[in-house]
Each structure stands twice: as structure tokens, then as C-alpha cells.
Amino acid sequence: MLAIDVKDLRKQFQVQKNREGVKGALKDLFKREYNQITAVKDISFQIPKGEICGYIGENGAGKSTTIKMLTGILVPTAGHLKVNGYVPYQERESFVKGIGVVFGQRSQLWWDIGVIESFQLLRKVYRVPEAEFRQRLDELVERLQLGELLNRPVRKLSLGQRMRCELVASLLHNPSILFLDEPTIGLDIVVKTEIREFLKKINREHGTTILLTTHDLQDIEALCSRVIMLDDGRIIYDGGLDELKSRWSKGREIQFQFGEQPRLAELHVQTAGLEGVTWSIDNELTATMWLPHAVNVSDALARVVGGVSDIRDIKIMETNTDEIVREIYQSGSASKEATEKLSQWDTGAGDQEAKESKQNE
Ligand SMILES: Nc1ncnc2c1ncn2[C@@H]1O[C@H](COP(=O)(O)OP(=O)(O)OP(=O)(O)O)[C@@H](O)[C@H]1O
Fold first, then answer.
1. What is the 64 CA–ligand 1 centroid distance (Å)?
2. Among the atoms of ligand 1, which is closest to the Cα of residue 11?
3. CB 9 within 8 A of CB 80
4. Which residue intervals make up region (Disordered) (predicted)?
5. DSSP 8-state symbol, 58
6. Rg of the chain on CA atoms, in Å
7. How far is 188 from 160, CA to CA, in rounded Å?
8. Atom 5 (ligand 1): residue with closest C-alpha?
9. Positive or negative CA dihedral for 318, 323, 329, 333?
10. Which residues on adjacent β-strands are paired with residue 315?
11. Is the Cβ atom of 104 under 6 angstroms away from ligand 1?
12. Lowest-confidence region among 15-24, 43-52, 110-119, 165-174
């Protein structure tokens, strides 16, 4: 069963042009001119129930615009979308009961009243029965250790405390889908880790589907098996994180620790003939071997282990996801298919007449 089903979804904004100078301003008064911005360009994807999916892309790629359409805040210019079986902007009242939303940069809590009062107000908005609300609140408060914060006004909370309260607020009505837009932005590593652990548990125990946008790839690594990558309003990758890493990383690093000082020339001798393998000395007792994917790791390892005595430790270094993703953003494509798709789009995507977008916000 699908939690989210998106087909050819598009969002265009009309932005007013400002002409220069006093003359320009006067002209603007009488005849406004507009530019069209296509923030989301006919994207399609499906998310099954219970999945945690990362939605990533550079600033301005169209992530928030997508989330706003998925949560019913914005009306799409074209395309189809179903979330939890509803068309979000058409069936808002029933629809919102099944979703939870956290925008890291914006609060859904009332600034000047106690946290618990905000929760009570949300209970009424979502029409959650009191007993169910109490039970859920107790569970969430215990999990996120919010006990002492409940009576404080939101404005007196630290960012980390507020984010934990935001998460509780989004889950009070037990939604089956949670949309998180930058939920860990600005938080320290301890709170980030706590929030990630909490989300994993919620997903595991309640089967909550989570769509997460973030610039912190550690969030993705910790939580998501799948990642959708957006660039300039188009999907350039949709698949597993591991696959992305193995397809895009150019090679691997293996670090050796020796009992005595390694000599570069001797190390090179061991891997002679393995094309592309390079060595660097890290410090007195460690050296790192870099090998391209074409070279078999066990072949290279066997040579070194067989040829150099007194190896104390061997570490296969993790592929650096940040670097890979940065590289993909720079090139604007994550696969050959995507590149081909992009060139098709370039020849025909821009000519559909723009419709004026309605905004519910
Ligand atoms: N209400 C709006 N009116 C006009 N243009 C908009 C509006 N909202 C977004 N845009 C434009 O649409 C594009 C996509 O913006 P969006 O906020 O969806 O990107 P994003 O991927 O969420 O970026 P960020 O990571 O910076 O939050 C940008 O060019 C942005 O300027």
C-alpha cells in the first residue's frame, strides 16, 4: 500500500518583475509584469507505507515546495498526488488528521503559552479523545524527556528543547505519515542523535512513514534506506543510499598501521601492476592505500599482507557521502539515465502554458 503517490507533479510561481528606477516603479503601478518560476518540474515518485525516505537537494532545488504540496499547503500547477489516499489540497480536513508536519525553521507551537497548553490546543484541532491524548502524551514525553518543559512558554525553550516539543506536537494525533523539513537544523550533535533515535523507534514501532528533507547527510545515513535527490526541480536520483555511494564513489581507502615506520617505495612495490592504486604516508606508523573500484579489495589486501611484515591494524575507510553528494550536485546528475532524461526535458519541458497557482497559505 502506498503512503505517497506523485505523478508528473509541477509547481510554478508567478513572481512580479520590478522595473528599475522611478519610471520603472510608475510603469509597474499601471502594468505589472511577471516572471514564471518552475520550482518543481513534473516529478514522479512513490513511497510505500512504513518507509523512511530522504529528500535532498541544494538550496532552491524545490524540496520545501514539494513538501508544501504534499501537505496541502500549496496547490500544484499540474500533475497528480495522493497522500494516504487523499488529494491533500482538496480534502484537507480529513487529510490532516493522518499526517504530522515539522518545519525546522517554523514553529507550530504558540510562542507565549506553556508547551502543554499548545499540545491541548492541538488536541482540540485534531479532535483527539482526552484518554488517547494522555496516553500518547505520556509516552512521547517520557521518550523525549520533556517532563520539566511542559509548563514553560515556548519562547523560553532552547532550540533543541523546542524541536523535541515540535516532534511531540506533530505526533499527538498518531499520524501515519510524518513530514520533516530540516528537523535537525541548528541542533548540537547530542540532540541530533536523540532525535534520530526517536524517529527510528517511532518508525519501527508504529510503522510511521517518514519523508525527511535535510542538508545534514548524517540524518540520511542514520535514518534512510532510500534517498530522492532533487536538482533544479527535477529528480536526479531515486534509490538506495548504498547504491548511490557505490555507484558514485570513485574508490576506497584502506588505512594500515605498522609496527615500524613504513617506506613509501616499499609499499608501492607491493601493489605494482594494480592500476590506479596509490599510497600516502599519514604519520610515523600509518599509511593509506587508495584503490579505484576496478581493483579488487581482497587482491590488493592480500598483496600488502603477504609482502609487508608487522601490520598492526587495517581499517577500511567509509565512503564519504558528503563528498559524493556534493559532486553529484555540482554535475547535476546522478546517473546516465538521468542525464538522458534531462536532455529530453531540455527540449520540451518548458512550453506548457503556465497556470496561475493558488496558494492556501
Ligand atoms: N512562494 C514562492 N513564490 C515564488 N517563488 C518561490 C516561492 N516558494 C519558493 N519559490 C522558489 O522556488 C524554488 C524552490 O524553492 P524551495 O523553497 O522549494 O527550495 P528548497 O529545495 O526547499 O530550498 P532550501 O534548501 O533553501 O529550503 C526557488 O527558486 C524559490 O525561490
1. 7
2. 12
3. yes
4. 333-361
5. S
6. 26
7. 8
8. 13
9. negative
10. 255
11. no
12. 15-24
More reliable by pLDDT, 351 or 149: 149
Three-class DSSP category at 47: strand
Q: Assess whether the C-beta atom of 61 lies below 6 angstroms from ligand 1.
A: yes
33 backbone dihedrals φ, ψ, rounded to 5°: -115, 145
C-alpha cell at 19: 522595473
Q: How many CB atoms lie within 10 A of CB 135?
A: 11
Q: Where are the alpha helices (DSSP H) in 13-83?
A: 21-30, 63-70
Question: For ligand 1, is residue 64 a contact (CB within 6 Å)?
Answer: yes
Ligand 1: atom nearest CA of 40 is: 14
Q: Is 229 in the pocket of ligand 1 (CB under 6 A)?
A: no
Q: Is the CB of 73 inside a 6 Å radius of any atom of ligand 1?
A: no
pLDDT one-digit tens code per residue, 140-158 = 988 888 888 889 998 999 8
The structure's pTM equals 0.77
Mutate to test the pocket of ligand 1, among 18, 43, 55, 64 (most ligand atoms within 8 A of CB): 64
| Residue carrying the nine cell digits 526517536 | 198
Pair 97, 128: CB distance under 8 Å: no
Contact 131, 91 (CB under 8 A): no
Q: What are phi and psi of 131, to 5 degrees?
A: -65, -45
263: closest CA among 309, 317, 314, 313? 309
Q: What's the confidence (pLDDT) of residue 340? A: 41
Distance in angstroms (rounded) separating the CA atoms of residues 92 and 314:
56
**For residue 32, how far is its CA from the centre of ligand 1 (angstroms)?**
22
Cα(35) to centroid(ligand 1), Å: 14
Min mean pLDDT across 133-147, 192-206, 324-338 is at: 324-338
